Amino acid sequence: MVNRKELNPDASPQAAFGARLRSSREKRGWTQEQLSERAGISSGHISGVETTRKSPSLHFAKAVDVAFSLLGTDATFERQWHEMQHGSLLEGFPEYVGYEGRATEVRLFEASFIPGPLQTRGYTEAIARFSVEQGDITPEQANERLDFLAERQAALFRTRLPMIHVVLDESCIRRPVGGVEVMDAQWARLLEFAAMPNSGLQIAPYAMGERQPFNRLVHLLTMADRSVMSYVESQTQGQLDRDLSSVLPLVKKYHQLQIEAASQAESVAMIEKLRKGI
Fold it and tell me: Quick one: CATH architecture of 89-275?
């Protein structure tokens, strides 16, 4: 105990994660070695995460959740890990993704980039690589985000497929990301999605002009009990909302968007022309 490092959970999200890990372990009277045996993680790694010398991974968070019997609760380390990775910019996003994987109907609108559920790995890697180059995230965090997106896609495109309707601003399909090969694969993925049962894909063309009702990401979920919730993002934060007084106006605008946007057949033709270089 002589070399015990004092922890300051207010220093950073990573410090808060480490301090909570130590506190949870010590409340159970466990040593790092005993947690190591239960979680299948080396005691040195546990020590490193507690003292912020090492960053926790998604695998690490899930392993300690199992060890602490936190699975299925609202206080998992996995949830804290997601919140730590996304920060305040994406506040509410991890919770939204949890609902998205259980929704019976998913409606997405994106104004700049292809939405995560429809991204190819190459497209996602190109975006993550730029974030690393800018110093926004580490290479390890980039890999973890790729793994998180893969889990999100697996949950959404599950056996009992929900109705998924996607409207993309035309800029999404025209914005070059990752080079010609990456974009060609991404366009092909969109065409595959459009051909799936229980899916819908529309492009909101530039010609809509001021009739385009959204200028930012809007996601709408309908759950099995018919409740509806929204998730929106601004430049600085994300917000999950279940209040019908604010969600229903977004639903109405989404319906207006679908009426104004190109039909799926027209949208597919637009993407096919891009693939042919027209």
Answer: 2-Layer Sandwich (3.30)
Query: What are the tens digits of pLDDT across the range 101-160?
Result: 889 999 999 999 999 999 999 999 999 999 889 887 788 778 877 887 888 898 888 767
pTM for the structure as a whole: 0.70
Query: What percent of the chain lies above the pLDDT cut of 70?
Result: 94
105 Cβ partners below 8 Å, 6+ apart?
162, 163, 164, 165, 221, 222
Q: Where in the chain is the domain with CATH 1.10.260.40?
A: 13-85
By the 10 Å C-beta count (0-12 exposed, 13-18 middle, 19+ buried), 34 is classed as middle
Burial (Cβ within 10 Å: 0-12, 13-18, ≥19) of residue 225: exposed
DSSP notation for 150-202: HHHHHHHS-SSPPEEEEEEEHHHHHS--S-HHHHHHHHHHHHHHHTSTTEEEE
Query: Of 249, 235, 214, 223, which is closest to residue 91 (Cα–Cα)?
Result: 235
The CATH code of domain 13-85 reads: 1.10.260.40
Q: Where exactly does CATH 3.30.870 map onto the chain?
A: 89-275
Residue-wise pLDDT tens digits, 8-28: 877 777 888 999 999 999 999
